[in-house]
Design goal:
With 584 residues, the protein is of the alpha+beta class. The chain folds into four domains: 187 residues, no CATH class; 33 residues; 175 residues, no CATH class; 174 residues, no CATH class. It has five helices and 44 strands. The strands form nine sheets. The chain has a nine-stranded antiparallel β-sheet. It starts with a strand and ends in a 22-residue tail after the last strand.
Length: 584
């Protein structure tokens, strides 16, 4: 007796490959589409956006699995012929033919799921030792009809012959009724089968232990590198701050506190021989907070770095992390090679006395950290009083070390990113040009749902800026030309069209977020959207920007902006070129 039916031979390599390809394809698709789909869900249903988007991402698995199932069936599906003889059983396919006598067999096993044949495997003492076939695709199973009936007839005949050969029949059909999985085994050699199962058990256990051990070592290594940074925990009740600096004394030793890193020992430095250098007794400003510079009779230190080029006797601390002696100038632990030490001085900010303003000058140049700002006049350069990232003279404005060459320095205003959700996004404008940090405001705006439009930069004006008041604050920069009102979406770093007027209008700004088109007065409000978890606290998803007519509170337009600090999946592996690079 014989039966021919389609089958998928179980190969670990092909199974692993297809499983990895499914996961990889799904991960890439999620990576590319997650933020886009979440954007539209937030515009439509802000409260349920994340839940719906997660459901959509898992829903993408269905077409992916279906596609790979088609490929799997095309390349791995083949027909096998099972032939039953008085002496044994044979398996024939297009590539090979194998015969197993009753004496060579260890076990024949059939698995059925929901009364459908699922898999068939033969375990033998000679090669091939194990043959394992699926009668259906493991990715996208379908109902078997005629093949199922033919195989069951073959199996009944096989059971009858096995009984004649005194093979032991074991079935768990009664045990697994709830799972609808039936396994029938015809055992030829119980001792060999038991030995084989013990071996498989030990191999499986060993593999699991290797995986768990490797994973544990990996996690332990990550934790070691994360927490074993060499920092020291000091009893702060017994430490003494040195001259208003970040240096501390404990048991006649000197330690430096590094913000965000911890406390570290200065080797071979005695506290009674160490002097902290701080900027104090300033005539028009508060003392600088938390200097990182100090010295002994032998060395000058910035944090725990020795500034070997400085003479301790001649060294002066200038503020803003700049130090000098009669010959050399240092910013932190970096030597400014071309700086003129004689005339070198820090440009002190009139308001901010923390270490956030890193400008200095000599008789020829202005410096930001170690970078020379070639176009600035040292004698005219000064800070904007409300921001710690800009400097200007009578002609030019710089954001850190970037020149904002379209701005008129004498008419420039700075609006600071002053709410707790903004990622330090500052706006500089002279009324004609607009810069967000060092970047020019985009001249192309994106519509809420799709499409783009040009911005009329000649008539563009600021109608709303960030602020902390009224609580909980305003979170976006708002602009308008004669045709459209725009929101700068900090998360997507794009101008978004909030509203388009039917015909050109001349808007008059009455106050922040309140303006008139000559007929109506409009106001813009912002509403935070938050969810509160049982254990995770409150999560801020973003805020809805609402444009209304003031007289009747009629809703004109709205836009949902995500929290700028939210994870942007599509940029997860991208280097953020816009971020400021701190010098360690």
């Amino acid at each position: 007796m014989q039966v021919t039916l389609p089958a998928f031979q179980m190969k670990i390599a092909s199974f692993t490959l297809f499983l990895l390809m499914i996961i990889l394809t799904w991960a890439v698709l999620v990576y590319l589409t997650y933020d886009l789909s979440l954007y539209y869900f937030y515009q439509l249903l802000p409260f349920f956006a994340q839940l719906l988007n997660i459901a959509l991402m898992f829903g993408l698995l269905i077409p992916i699995v279906y596609l790979y199932n088609q490929l799997y069936q095309k390349y791995f599906k083949r027909s096998i012929t099972l032939k039953l003889y008085q002496q044994g059983i044979s398996l024939d396919s297009s590539t090979q033919a194998d015969f197993f006598s009753w004496q060579e067999l260890i076990q024949i096993q059939l698995q059925q799921r929901h009364t459908q044949i699922h898999s068939f495997n033969i375990l033998s003492k000679s090669k091939p030792y194990r043959q394992y076939f699926y009668f259906n695709s493991w990715m996208w199973p379908v109902s078997l009809t005629q093949q199922h009936t033919d195989f069951l007839k073959f199996w009944k005949k096989l059971e009858a012959l096995a009984k004649q050969q005194q093979l032991q029949r074991i079935s768990n059909a009664n045990i697994n009724r709830k799972t609808h999985v039936d396994i029938i085994s015809l055992i030829a050699d119980q001792q060999v089968l038991a030995a084989y199962q013990r071996k498989q058990k030990w191999l499986t256990t060993g593999l699991i232990l290797v995986i768990l051990t490797s994973f544990s070592l990996f996690i332990a290594s990550l934790l070691w590198h994360e927490f074993n940074d060499g920092s020291i925990n000091l009893p702060h009740q017994q430490t003494r701050s040195i001259s208003g600096t970040n240096f501390e004394a404990f048991q006649n030793q000197v330690y430096i506190f590094k913000q965000g890193q911890g406390t570290f020992l200065l080797p071979q430095v005695s506290a009674d021989q160490f002097t902290g250098l701080a900027l104090s007794n300033l005539p028009n400003r508060a003392d600088e907070l938390y200097s990182n510079v100090g010295k002994t009779a032998q060395h000058v230190y910035w944090q725990d770095h020795i500034l070997s080029g400085l003479n301790p006797v001649q060294t002066l601390y200038l503020g803003n992390d700049f130090s000098k002696d009669h010959q050399r100038v240092y910013f932190r632990d970096k030597h400014l090679v071309n700086a003129n030490a004689t005339d070198f001085a820090a440009v002190l900010h009139p308001t901010f006395n923390a270490l956030v303003y890193f400008y200095a000058k000599d008789d020829r140049h202005v410096y930001y950290k170690t970078q020379v700002l070639t176009d600035l006049n040292p004698q005219q350069s000064t800070a904007f009083p409300n921001n710690s990232q800009y400097i200007h003279d009578q002609q030019y404005v710089y954001y850190q070390d970037k020149k904002l060459d379209k701005l008129n320095a004498q008419r420039t205003q700075i609006f600071s990113g002053s709410n707790r959700f903004s990622q330090n996004l500052n706006l500089a404008t002279d009324g004609q040009s607009f810069y967000l940090n060092e970047h020019v405001l985009p001249n192309i705006a994106v519509h809420k749902l799709w499409g783009t439009t040009s911005v009329d930069t000649a008539h563009l004006q600021l109608i709303g800026h960030q602020s902390n008041e009224p609580y909980p604050g305003n979170f976006s920069y708002l602009f308008a030309d004669q045709q459209q009102i725009y929101v700068y979406d900090e998360f997507y770093q794009q101008l978004k069209v909030l509203y388009r007027f039917s015909q050109p209008v001349q808007l008059h700004v009455l106050e922040n977020r309140r303006f008139s088109d000559g007929k109506n007065i409009y106001i813009i409000t912002e509403k935070l959207y938050r969810t509160k978890g049982r254990s995770s606290g409150t999560t801020t998803h973003g805020f809805k920007i609402i444009l209304m007519r003031e007289t009747d509170q009629h809703l004109v337009a709205q836009y949902f902006a995500r929290n700028p600090s939210s994870l942007k999946l599509s940029k997860l592996f991208h280097h953020n070129n816009d971020a400021s690079q701190e010098i360690d």
